[in-house]
Amino acid sequence: MKKNEVNKKVLLELLFIILSIIFVVPILFHGYIFGDDIQFHFDRIYEISQNIKHFNLFPQFYSYSFGKIGYLLNSFYPWMTLLPFSILLNIIPNPLVAFCFGVAFYIFIGLNLTYLVFKKVPITKGQAFFTALIYMFSGYLSVNLYRRFALGEFLGMIFLPLAFYGLYAILFGNEKDWPYLAWGMSLIILSHLLTAYILSIVFCIILLFTFYQLDNKKEKIIEIGKSILLCIASTLIFIIPFLVQELGQKFLQPDPYPLQSGANDLFNSIVISLSNTPGLNDMQHIQCGVVVIGTLIVGVFFWKYFNKLERVSYVSAIFIYVCCNCAGLWQALNNTPLTLIQFPNRLLSLVTLFSSIVGGKILFIIFKKFNGKFKKLLPILGIIIVVAPWIDQVNKQLDFEKVAAAGHQMLTYQNDKFTDYGGYHFENYTPADAMQSLSFATCHQVEVDGNVIQLSQNEVISKPNCLEFKVTAKKDNLVKLPVLYYLNLHGYQGNKKLNLMKSSDGLVSVKAKMSDKPIFIEYIPSFIECLGIIISISTWLISMMVWIRNKKIKESEKNGKAKE
Question: Which residues contact 402 (CB under 8 A, 6 or more apart)?
Fold first, then answer.
């Protein structure tokens, strides 16, 4: 590689680092962040960090947070992409600063991934840069973090371009890049299931409309099949525990909402976005932001400059945006499988991605017309055009939160403890039989042969994937513990294994075998879950090594031809 190219790559990475820092500066400046799901997600980070501190790298059974009731959250909500946040929380003493470093890390990853994949489609490096910039500093991505604290959806959006490029490469470009589809979908599954669900539906629709015009259909089907198999193998670490629990007992649908509750009037939606105040109120204020909507409005004047990909992206963005803001359409779709997505505005992630492709082209066209001594300053001007409205938006959101969140829980430089059990959304992943027993469990009451005993905090001890209860019970006493019953839980007292049972109200019951020893309830992965862990980790390692090897071979061949 030529020295000039190396210097350009180094400068680009430095610019991405600066942009990543800019993304979290508003949080650090204000000194707080609040969101609808802040307690839920931050305590997930905290739980994983405590397990890492105790050398447990497969945390499932929540014993340090979420009320210490053995909530098996990580079997239902993907957790692997939270590892960087949890590692940083163990390294950096201040929780707010640690969280900001984690966000900056993912913004840096997102900028690189988006730039990388769009360089591979028929657009220039300059357009790929502006596309990455618009996407990562978009209104909806920021609302997910700064207003909703929807960390799973935020992380899912980081990997969205990777999955889309993978499908594009198989259908219209370089079939050898089929692993990008598998990697993108795998990382989304390991971040946010609903985003993966939405994307799967969208990909099926794309295949339905494009398959008839494709060449080499058989080869493309094979590449898609390989991607699906690689994706499954990569995510077994989560999929198997999820299926084990879901198939083992009944769970209710998490947070069911009428679909139309997340839709807005189209005109009001445009006004909210152009006023640059998305996310300041209810779910209907969750919008794309001024840059994305501005792109859709002015894009019609640049239509003649767009290639096929950009035209399809432009039309798709407008179509999806209109659908998102059509309450009647979503009301008609109630009681269908689409109700799982909860809010139609989740589709704004797709609007954002497609609009970013178009916006990158518009900025590139405008700046291409400028030549002369100010040419090198144009990228800086482009950054200002995109980032300045973003800064205005997030500052409005944080200032709004200071008023709206009065009396609510926030993550600040001083506060890293949450106490409101309502923020944990226990109802989402609690077994249906145990829903009536949540108050009993969260109060840490124990029932010994029908007598209720209140345990103190010192009598409930947290350990990785395990809770220890200092219970006063005699041999053969039936003890009902404040622990939700899930599969793969085991009970111990001293060196003796207890016969663990499910009580009539969905909690864990055991028969004491001695009177002077505490009772332990521990989650132990089954053989099939351990096998899934091994397969997933091995799949990631092998696929990455093969990809790196192939890349080196390709570069070597390219350099050899250049010398000839």
Answer: 30, 32
CA 3 – CA 377 distance, rounded (Å) = 22
Whether this prediction's pTM lies above 0.70 is answered by yes
Helix, strand, coil percentages, rounded to 5, for the chain: 65, 10, 25
For residue 359, give the H/E element and its range: helix 348-368
The single residue listed with the structure tokens 């000194």 is 31
- CA neighbor of 484 nearest in space, from 447, 520, 435: 435
Whole-number Å distance between alpha carbons of 510 and 522: 13
Cα 134 to Cα 136: distance, rounded to the nearest angstrom: 6
| Interatomic CA distance for residues 287 and 323, integer angstroms | 13
Q: How many CB atoms lie within 10 A of CB 175?
A: 16
The tokens describing 286, both together, are 């969750």
The residue whose two tokens read 């009731």 is 69
| Strand ranges of the sheet holding 519-523, from the earlier edge strand across to the other edge | 460-463, 466-469, 519-523, 489-493, 496-498
Dihedral sign for Cα atoms in the order 231, 232, 238, 243: positive
Cα-based torsion angle of the residue sequence 498, 501, 507, 513 in order, rounded to the nearest 10 degrees: -30
- Structure tokens of 110? 């997102």
Beta bridge pairs of residue 251: 431
Residue from 430, 317, 452 nearest 76 by CA: 430
Longest Cα separation, the chain: 89
Per the model's pLDDT, the better-predicted residue between 418 and 1 turns out to be 418
Q: Is residue 200 classed as helix, strand or coil in its secondary structure?
A: helix
Quote the crossing angle between the two packed helices 179-189 and 151-172, to the nearest 10°.
160
Q: Which two tokens stand for residue 527?
A: 């053989």
> pLDDT tens digits, residue range 48-90?
999 999 999 999 999 999 999 999 999 999 999 999 999 999 9
For residue 563, pLDDT beyond 60: no
DSSP state at residue 36: T
Q: Is it the case that residue 543 has pLDDT exceeding 90?
A: yes
